[in-house]
Design a protein that fits this description.
Elements lengths: L1 E8 L3 H23 L6 E9 L4 E8 L2 H8 L2 H15 L9 E6 L3
Antiparallel strand pairs: 1-3, 1-4, 2-3
Helix pairs in contact: 1-3
Amino acid sequence: SVARIVRMHVAGESQAAKADKAVLAIKRALEEAQAAKEIQGFTKVVRTVCKTEWAYEGAIVFDSLDNFKAYMESDFREKTMKPLLADVTKYSLEPETIYTGNRVYDE
């Protein structure tokens, strides 16, 4: 599996809760796009929070590298996911330090 991750710091519990609502919108959009066959191989969204540092991380997981690559190049990502991601990252304490990257994802 392959995951696209975003990592940032939030101000505290209330900001993390607001980011969680935006992450749920991302999950719904991905599920709907998969049902409509706009994307393939989406498996889940994972979110972790460190309450000591208020580090907030989200991951969108795909079942294969090919499906991940197709998602990354898709119109769906450009037109739908980028604005939804902006709804999450607006809660970052320091927007210039937001990290995005790709990971091998094994359970």
